[in-house]
Each structure stands twice: as C-alpha cells, then as structure tokens.
Write a structure and sequence with these properties.
- The complex is a heterodimer of chains A (537) and B (312).
- With 537 residues, chain A is mostly helical.
- Chain A is built from 23 helices and eight strands.
- In chain A, strands 2-1-3-4 form a four-stranded parallel sheet.
- The longest helix of chain A has 19 residues.
- In chain B, helix 5 packs antiparallel against helix 7.
- Chain B is elongated.
- Classes of the chains: A mainly alpha (537), B mainly alpha (312).
- Chains A and B meet through helix 3, helix 4, helix 6, helix 9 and helix 10 of A and helix 3, helix 6, helix 7, helix 10 and helix 11 of B.
Chain lengths: 537, 312
C-alpha cells in the first residue's frame, strides 16, 4: 500500500470522504489472527446513514451528527465553533487547562517522536489523519489564524494558516474521537507537548460552546448521571434493588450471608463503584463486598444520587460537567461524614476524582480520595484474608494496566503485588506499567456503540492491546489453556468484552477478561466453590 | 555606532525581552487542573518505575517524600542527553544530541568571548603567551569550546536538515520555517568554523567586536567573513523569540508545572485558597447545560440540567 499523503490542507479543502480505510493496510496481528479472514471488518456506513450523518472524515460515524441542511445552518455552526475556539484560549473560560494547552500549541518542533508511540496511528498502518500531530496542527493553525494577534496575515507568512468551513469542522468533530487520550505521545515528547490534551480541548469547543457531544458521553452519560443518579440510568431505588439481589447472589454462590452497608453515617470509607459493574459484571462489586466484609473494613456504599456511580465522563469532553459530577461525589461523601472515598475498579474515576478534581475541591468538599488498589493490597498483606494462590493455578494470568490508573496516576505496584499473592501463573505484557498500551476504549470509546464506530475501535484503537494479549499468551494460545486478562477497570473491561467478541477470542483461544477482586476472592480458602465462573460474559 | 553594532544590540535586546516575555506570560497563566503524567522522577523510591504517593494507604496523612536529587538527575539527562529522544526516536537523536550539546558548548564559548573582551578592555592580555595564566586559559578555552561546539552543532544541524528533507514523515509535516530555522542555525555554526579556519583562528576579531559593544566604542576593522558570521548570529537572535525554538522556556513549564506537578490540594493549604480563587473565574461558555455569565463555582454547583438545543 502506498504511503498516505493526506495533508492538513486536504483536511480543510477536499470534498467528499477524505480517507478510505483499508484493513489490508493495518498492521499484521500475531497468530492465529495473522489470517485476515479471522479479523472483523469495519462495516461501511449504509447509504442512508452516510446521507443523514456527517462521516466525511473516514467513513466512520461516531458522533451521529445530522448533516446541516442549509448554508445558514452551516454558517451558524462555524460561527459558534470560532466563538468556542476563542474561549479555549481565554484565561477565565479555560483556566482549567490554559497553560498546558498553550505549551502544546506554542512549542511543537514536529520531530515526530510522538508518532512512534501512538497505537492508533501505528496499528492503522500510519494513516495520516491519526498521526498525533495532525490533529494538533489543525488546532494550532486555527489558533494562529483566528485567535493569535496578527491573525491570518502572520499565520500565512509561515505557512501555518487554515480556512475554516463546516466541512472542516465536521471532520474535526469526528477526528476528536479518534484518540483515546492515552497520552503515550505526551510521555515521549522531548519538549512536553501533549497531543492527547488537544483531543480533549477540541471536544470542549463542541460540547461547551456548540452543545454537541457524543450521545453516550453527554445526553445518555453525564446529563443522565446528574439527572437520574447514574450514567447507566439506574436510579437510587433501582440501585437498592440491585444490592438486595446481589446480596442473595453472594449467599447462593458462596454461602456467605451478610448485608452490604448502605448509607452508613460515620463509616471510615465511602466506596464508589462504576455503576456499570452492577449491571454488566456484578461479580465485581460482589467480590468487593466479600473481601471488605471478611477483612472487617468499616465502609459504606451510598444510595444518594451520584453517590453509587463513580464515573465522570466530563473528564473527557466537558470541564463543567466534570466539575458538577465531581462535586456531587464529594457531597455524597460529606453527607455520610466518611474519612475517605475509595474508588472501585474504574480507571477514569480514579484519575478524575483523585487527581484532576483535586483543584475543584475546597474546604468541606476536600475529602481525601484513595484507590481501591492500595486498600486491597493493605488487606492482602495484613493476612486478614486466608488466601491460597494455587486455587488460581488453572489460569494463566496477565495484567492490563488501565491508562488512567497507571500512566496518568502512578498506581503501578499494588495491583501487581496482589496478583503475585493470589495467582501463581502471572506474566507481564510487554510493555507494561506506565508504558502500557491503552485498551483502545479510553476517552469514552468503550461506551460509544453507535454506527460503525465499534468496528473502528475493534480494528484500530484496540489493535495494540490485542497484539499484546496474543503475544504474551503466544506459547499457550491453544484453547486447552485457560488465559485470564486481569483488567481492574470497567471501561477497559467493556472494551475487552467487545473486542474479544469481535475476534472470537474466548471461543478460539480460551482467553477471558475480568477484574482483580474476582481473583482475590477465587483464592479465598473460606469459600469452597470457585468464585470465578469460566464462561463467556 | 555602525550598522552591525546596532543590529547586534537590537537583536540581543529582542532576544532577551522575547525570552523573558515568554517566560513571564507562561508563569502568569492561571492555576490549572492537575494533568500530571508518570513517571515523575521526584517520587522518592517510586520514580524509577513511575509510582506515585497514591500507592500509599492514607497517603495524605504521611509526609511527602520527594527526591530533588532524582529530579535533577532526570533533568540533567533530558537537558544534556535528550534522553526521551534517545529512547523513542534514535535516528533523529543522532543529530539532535550533537546539535543541542554543541550549542551548550557554544554558550560557554560566548561567555568566554565576553570575559576575554572585558579582560582586554581592562588591559589584560588574552593570548597564548599571556603573562597571567587566566589570559592563556581564556584564550585556549575560547577556541576549544568554540570549535568543538560548532563542529557538533553544525553536524547535528545539517543532519537534522537532511532528515527533514529526506524522511517522508518529517517532510510531510514541515513548513518553510521548519527548514529555515535549522538552515539559519547551521549557517551560524558553519560560518564560525569558516572564520576559525581562516581570518579569525583565535576569535580575536570576535572578541574585539564584543569589546566595542561593551565599551560603546566604534567598531574595529573586521574581515568580511567575520562580519558575515556576526550578522548571521544577530539575525538568529532576532528571529528566535518568534519561533518554537524558545522551547527551552516552554520545556521548563511543561515538565515542572504540568507533567511533574503533582502537589496535592490538602485541606487548609495555600493551594486550596488558590483553588477557591480559581473557581471565582467568570464563565461565558454558552451551551445550554452551562449556567453562563456567573462564576465557575456557580456553574459547577448549578443543579439545572438543561440540554435544550443540544445534540448528543
């Protein structure tokens, strides 16, 4: 396949679909998926969908944004975009990220060191629009042309101008959803430029000024979260019903009968899960409950609106939604008078609530936040649980490092120490730790299920992770060996679930995914029956 | 004052003002949300694998253990050896390292030329046979730092230029300024070597020129080659503040204020007071789910969830 030579000028000026995706150009996967016939396809959008929705970037519809019908509509959208662009560089409107954005805009030397690090760019066979600097260069040109003093005249002198149009903006809208914000590019940049940040900042223009966002993140995400109590739509009443059901299930599975503490005032800890766990992977909150009960931890869950769902989708696209949700989490903790909030197995919840929201909280809202990984390690090391790692001997385990917990927060060792204590056959992926590859579902991709976007995710953004999984288990790839990808993050699990299904990984290679707590409980000797059920879910 | 003297003074002034302006502008930007990225080298005992204080239970009750030595060591490796490029882009590092290291040596060269100029103005002799050891040392060190620095920097510069022309992924993303920057710099280094190899083997003319600036005296007679070199150097100083080549300023902020900025917001701290202040910034984002016109604190605590007219 000849080298892709799409330029930023093509991005602005070309009519029709800019890039045609060709699976034969993607990087070859390890066996058995070196056979293209075993790989899923990126289904082309239907003619009806192409006519209705903007998809002139690469034929993939992530946004499902209806094509404006009149020139007047397009003009208004363009004006709104430019208005938002200016606010992005305003110290009052973008105090949260002005300095990091400015450094990125001002100092890129175009050395392309970041390109080597980007899984989306490389696994796609180096499709130009997915190059980390491609997206950033567009924003940089927009900034120089429409915001910086001197405007288009000065920008054009250096060949760094660009002309805005609805076609360009519609493509940019989609392009802002072709990066998982894993920040591997930022990690390798010699200067400190952050192309992942650019993705996020672009999304803010669309959401915070134009009121445009991917539905699962906004209307069915943060808006639903604030309205109903959970991004899943689960209300407090439904949450309490769920807990009752899970209590019964725990008793059925393990023989252990106990009530889960809910709304217990004065508890030491408020534990907040990603609410998706209750619905998709109930064994995860069940395992937490079993562990904390056995260890005698004084904790509580909350049935307050937002108190039982630790997600914060705003962290990927909207600073105001982000702040609203974070403050509601803090409020739930404040109401119960707990000493700290502990975050369950959810990567972005870790980073959002503990790190990024750190400078949103003040006074009584400034309640300490901690990772469940550290609490779990403390429990495992204390000896309060009787653990026998040989109970996990039928599994070969590897660890997926969620970006938000590891590279973006520095929680690297606790989960490994736990794994070594509960599973004998543990192998690291390469690379791992802070140099891990994203699962491919970061920045909201895991929940973006519309159109043919999941196909793009499974084929391109997930590809590096799939490669790692196949590589680490290559010697035992046959189905007679049970292989477990431990992924202590809900969004990562959702992504892996869809990816495994698309490639038939469970049926073909007997590879399953799951959290960390399930392995801990599986190693608990007081529970006779294996807790981990080796079946597809 | 001759045209060359004026050009050099103006260029130096523009350079200094430009660099200071960029630093002050970045320093005065508002407090931002945390956006740290690991590994952070100052995390004591954890920096080498990318761990953070968040790995500790009840981390806020424990004293922060920070290793400035580890941080300085990483900074030195990055500044002197450009280690990130060594690890992640070796082919380009082969040129970028000598390019930058050569410039560090040339910075010492410039200082030595200045010292030599002032010594000469005060009557001291800067020569191999100077009676005092200092005069001889300045004489020889000037040549050593100047020549080695220029050789490395010129090699690196030409290598970077050729890379940008020859490698498709660099050529594809470059505009004329990306080529011009490295051409101009390389011309400065090559012209320095040219005058050393020809009319100014001990940089005596260069020293005399700098001396004339410092003492506000008329320009000494300079060979054309020296005038060309000095003009190129002045043009570079004039041009630099308007380009990303001021990344030595940006890099400081990128690492210390952003990537490695992991200072926690503890209850009652000065940082917490800054957070309260930041939440008082005015917000005018206009999507309907945002309470616009008031403060960020008001927008963040607004219980309305209006999405009228929104898509998504």
């Amino acid at each position: 396949m000849s080298r892709d030579k799409t330029t930023v000028k093509d991005f602005a000026n070309t009519k029709g679909q800019l890039v045609q995706l060709d699976e034969s150009g993607f990087l070859t996967l390890p066996p058995p998926y070196d056979d293209l016939n075993l790989q899923p396809r990126i289904r082309p959008a239907t003619d009806e969908a192409r006519k209705k929705y903007e998809c002139d970037l690469d034929g993939v519809i992530g946004f499902k944004f209806p094509r404006p019908e009149t020139e007047d509509e397009k003009r208004q959208l363009v004006e709104k975009f430019l208005s938002g662009l200016k606010k992005l560089f305003d110290r009052e409107n973008n105090w949260p990220f002005l300095q990091p954005l400015f450094v990125t805009m001002e100092y890129c030397a175009k050395c392309q060191t970041c390109a080597q690090a980007c899984p989306v760019f490389n696994e796609s066979g180096q499709i130009e629009i997915y190059r980390p600097t491609f997206r950033s260069d567009i924003l940089r040109r927009l900034w120089r042309t429409y915001v910086k003093k001197g405007g288009r005249f000065i920008a054009s002198l250096s060949g760094n101008d660009i002309s805005v149009s609805w076609t360009m903006i519609a493509r940019l809208m989609e392009l802002s959803y072709r990066c998982t914000i894993c920040r591997r590019c930022a990690q390798t940049c010699p200067i400190g430029v952050d192309n992942g940040l650019v993705t996020r900042e672009l999304r803010k223009i669309f959401s915070m000024e134009m009121g445009i966002a991917v539905k699962p993140l906004h209307e069915k995400g943060s808006v639903q979260h604030l309205d109903k109590g959970s991004s899943t739509g689960m209300t407090p009443v439904a949450f309490l019903d769920n807990i009752e059901f899970l209590e019964e299930e725990v008793e059925e599975r393990t023989g252990l009968e106990f009530k889960w503490p809910i709304d217990k005032e004065g508890a030491d800890i408020l534990l907040i899960h990603n609410a998706g766990e209750f619905l998709a992977w109930p064994e995860n909150p069940e395992a937490f409950a079993i562990i904390l009960e056995a260890a005698g931890i004084n904790y509580t869950l909350s049935s307050d609106v937002l108190g039982y769902d630790g997600v914060n989708y705003g962290v990927w696209y909207d600073d105001v939604q982000f702040a609203k949700v974070a403050l509601k989490h803090a409020e739930a903790a404040k109401k119960l008078g707990v000493k700290k909030i502990v975050i369950g197995e959810c990567g972005h919840a870790h980073k959002a609530l503990t790190v990024i929201a750190d400078r949103v909280f003040a006074k009584e809202y400034n309640i300490p936040r901690e990772s469940s990984m550290t609490l779990l390690l403390d429990i495992v090391k204390s000896g309060r649980l009787k653990l026998d790692p040989s109970r996990n001997d039928d599994l070969h385990t590897t660890l997926h490092d969620p970006c938000n917990m590891v590279r973006l927060m520095g929680i690297v060792q606790p989960q490994r120490e736990i794994l070594r204590a509960v599973a004998n056959n543990f192998q690291e992926m390469t690379p791992h730790g802070v140099h891990n590859y994203c699962c491919g579902g970061g920045s909201g991709f895991a929940i973006t299920q519309d159109g043919n976007f999941p196909d793009w995710r499974n084929s391109i953004s997930c590809r590096a992770k799939l490669r790692q999984i196949l590589d680490v288990f290559q010697d035992i790839i046959e189905p007679e060996h049970r292989k477990y990808v431990c992924a202590p993050c809900s969004n990562c699990k959702g992504t892996l679930r869809d990816m495994f299904a698309a490639y038939g990984l469970f049926e073909r290679c007997n590879i399953l995914y799951g959290g960390l707590v399930e392995l801990i409980v599986n190693a608990m000797t007081e529970i006779e029956k294996p807790f981990l059920e080796w079946e597809w879910h | 004052m001759s045209f060359l003297q004026l050009l050099f003074c103006v260029s130096t002034l523009v350079f200094v003002i430009g660099v200071v302006y960029k630093a002050v502008r970045l320093a005065r930007m508002p407090l931002h949300l945390r956006w740290d990225l690991y590994p952070i080298p100052h995390e004591k005992g954890k920096g080498h694998y990318g761990g953070s204080y968040y790995e500790e239970v009840d981390w806020w009750t424990k004293p922060r253990e920070v290793s400035r030595a580890a941080e300085l060591k990483e900074m030195a490796k990055e500044i002197i050896f450009i280690q990130s490029m060594f690890h992640h882009n070796r082919p380009l590092w082969l040129f970028s390292f000598p390019f930058h290291f050569g410039m560090y040596l040339l910075t010492v060269f410039v200082i030595l030329v200045g010292i030599g100029a002032i010594m000469a103005l005060s009557g001291a002799v800067v020569a191999p046979d100077a009676s005092g050891i200092v005069g001889a040392a300045v004489y020889y060190l000037t040549i050593i730092f100047g020549v080695i620095g220029a050789v490395l920097a010129a090699f690196g510069g030409l290598g970077l230029l050729i890379s940008r022309i020859v490698k498709p992924d660099l050529r594809h993303v470059s505009t004329w300024t990306d080529y011009f920057n490295v051409v101009l710099l390389s011309a400065v280094f090559i012209s320095l070597l040219w005058i050393w190899n020809g009319v100014d083997p001990s940089f005596a003319y260069t020293r005399a020129f700098i001396g004339s600036l410092v003492s506000f005296s008329s320009i000494p007679a300079l060979p054309m080659a020296v005038q060309v070199h000095l003009t190129l150097a002045a043009l570079f100083l004039l041009w630099l503040p308007f380009t990303h080549m001021t990344h030595f300023v940006g890099k400081y902020f990128a690492y210390h204020n952003i990537r490695w900025e992991d200072h926690p917001n503890i209850r009652g701290s000065r940082l917490e007071r800054s957070v309260v202040e930041a939440l008082g910034h005015k917000i005018t984002w206009s999507a309907s789910h945002i309470k616009t016109g008031g403060s960020w604190a008001e927008a963040a605590t607004d219980t309305g969830n209006d999405t009228e007219g929104e898509q998504g």
